[in-house]
Amino acid sequence: MKRHISLFVFFCLPGVFLAGCSDADRSSLMGEEEVPVELSALEGDVSSRAAVSAGSKPQAEFEAAMVFSRTGGDYTTPVVAAEEGVWKGTVGINGEVSWGNAGKDAPIYPRWGAWLYLVSYAPYAEPDKAASGSGTGTYAGTVSFVLTGQTDLLYASQIQGNRWADGHFLSLVFDHQLTQLSFQAKKTLQNGVSVWVKSITVKEAKPLASLKLATGEVTFSTTTEHPQGLTVDLTQNGTNGAGQGTEVTGQTPVSVGQLLLPPLEAGGSNGNGGGSNTYTLKVETSIGTFDNVSLTFGDSNASGKNPLQAGMSHAVTLNIGDHVTANIDGSDASVPSGSAVPVGETVHLTAIAPEGQHF
Question: How far apart are CA 46 and CA 213, in angstroms?
Answer without folding.
Answer: 19
